[in-house]
From TrEMBL:
UniProt-listed Gene3D superfamilies: NAD(P)-binding Rossmann-like Domain (3.40.50.720), Succinyl-CoA synthetase domains (3.40.50.261)
Domain CoA-binding: 15-110
The organism of origin for this protein: Marinibacterium profundimaris
Name by which UniProt lists this protein: Acetyl-CoA synthetase
Keywords: Tricarboxylic acid cycle
Swiss-Prot/TrEMBL GO biological process terms: tricarboxylic acid cycle
One Pfam match: CoA_binding_2
Length: 463
């Protein structure tokens, strides 16, 4: 008797916290997709049952292997297809006769493969018409859920992520990996990542609705090449933004050449870019021009602090960087007002006479010899009634107390605070106090400006 097709919510519940995972194409040979999927599942501590599926049977990665899916007794929450396309389609047909909730298609060779993939795509669609399960992909990189120790992917780029408020949906696995890696380096936690691939069944709209409704999600980051269900995507995004959550999107295929590349990547048609931009604006989606700017935007939004307006207070250990940050902020439509007299008086306790206490505040290099000074100055600027967002710019950090003071300043206020740390690449080990709080940290004023723009979009103050 056929198993009832699960709803999107039922399928994704099973996907993100599965009891049983079968890996079709599990291999003993390093370098093969099935071997990588199996190894990453084990090494990341997944606690459920893992069943390798390989025609030779025996034991793989210390686990008893089934020769076929039919040998597995009982229901299977997730089946991963990591085989050549013909074998994957045979396995997919087998799944229609079993109690399977979700299939994750790592396999490629479908609509993205031009004429060669056309017949495979048609067969895939015929199978899915009456399939009693849901499909992620195909041509995807998998699924990651740090809170469940679930790393259902062949890519080690997702190793070591901490749980947190950001959900990611990406038609490109590599771009998803890049963005997750950069967010992880900044201490931004991940709720879930889905590489959606060709989206033959489950689309970005399905995933946005589900992940956005998860109470653990504060920000949803999307990389899309085509909105296959644009109306539902827009409706879901609007509901989330009205509920106080954030959607950040990168849309691939803006240019003519990019549009051609999109079609060969996921088999998608890119759509009218002007229409998509208008839809994003109307529904409150923050559109980032590219993946790095998207990471910068999410870094600012993930801290969960909303500015009351667009007035920025800036402190810097060097005048030049303060000037550059000021120029970038004002060019983006922010105000950099003169600080309140009481604030300037408080700053004068720490800033030498040859510095500046107006805005931007030039602390000068003297603070490097006094590790707590920068934190006290940041607290004073954040407390100014005429400041909505505070930015601290530092270079190299000679003392761990320096970072601790910045972390304490972050804890002392509910206003958004951004740190521009130009020496962070060399001082990475000392930044854990900032990472564990998910303090937004950037390596240049230009990247901090991307974070500023995302914060401004939450207030409606800056276009």
């Amino acid at each position: 008797m056929a198993v009832r097709r699960p709803s999107v919510a039922e399928a994704l519940d099973a996907l993100f916290d599965p009891s049983t995972i079968a890996v079709v194409g599990a291999s003993r040979t390093k370098g093969k997709l099935g071997q990588a999927v199996l190894a990453l599942l084990k090494s990341n501590g997944y606690r459920g049952k893992i069943i390798p599926v390989n025609p030779s049977g025996g034991e793989i990665e210390g686990l008893a292997a089934a020769r076929s899916l039919e040998e597995i007794d009982g229901p299977i929450d997730v089946v991963v297809l990591a085989t050549p396309v013909g074998v994957a389609l045979d396995a997919l047909e087998t799944c229609t006769r079993l109690d399977v909730k979700v299939v994750v298609g790592v396999t490629s060779g479908f609509s993205e493969a031009g004429e060669d993939g056309h017949n495979n795509e048609m067969r895939l669609r015929r199978i899915m018409q009456d399939a009693p399960f849901r499909l992620v992909g195909p041509n995807c990189e998998g699924v990651v859920r740090p809170a469940s120790d679930l790393q259902l992917t062949f890519s080690p780029m997702f190793n070591g992520l901490r749980p947190g408020p950001v959900a990611m949906i990406s038609q490109s696995g590599a771009l998803g990996g890049l963005m997750a890696l950069r967010l992880g380096e900044r201490g931004v936690g991940i709720n879930a990542i889905v590489s959606s691939g060709n989206e033959t069944d489950l689309t970005a709209a399905d995933l946005l609705e589900y992940l956005g409704n998860d109470p653990q999600t504060r920000v949803v980051l999307c990389y899309v090449e085509e909105l296959r269900d644009g109306r539902r995507f827009a409706e879901a995004a609007q509901r989330l933004t009205r509920a106080g959550k954030h959607v950040v999107a990168v849309k691939g295929g803006r240019s003519r050449a990019g549009s051609r590349a999109v079609e060969s990547h996921t088999g998608a048609m890119a759509g009218d870019d002007r229409v998509i931009s208008a839809v994003f604006r109307e529904t409150g989606v923050f559109r980032a021009r590219e993946s790095v700017a998207a990471v910068d935007a999410v870094t600012a939004l993930a801290a969960g602090r909303r500015p009351a307006g667009n007035r920025v207070g800036i402190i810097s250990v060097t005048g030049g960087l303060g000037v550059e940050m000021t120029d970038l902020a004002e060019s983006a439509g922010f105000e950099v007002p003169v600080l309140d007299e009481a604030t300037q008086t408080a700053l004068s306790r720490y800033v030498p006479f040859y510095g500046s206490v107006s805005n931007p505040v030039d602390l000068t290099g003297v603070v490097l010899a006094n590790p707590t000074y920068v934190g006290r100055c940041l607290e004073a600027v954040a407390a100014d009634p005429g400041v909505d967002i505070a930015i601290a710019i530092i270079t190299f950090v000679p003392d761990q107390q320096f970072i601790e003071a910045l972390a304490e300043a972050f804890d002392s206020t509910g206003k958004p605070i951004l740190i521009v740390w130009t020496g962070s690449a060399r001082s990475n080990a000392s930044g854990e106090a900032l990472r564990e709080r998910a303090v937004p940290v950037y390596d240049s004023p230009a990247r901090a400006a991307s974070g500023l723009s995302a914060l401004a979009a939450t207030t409606g103050e800056v276009a």
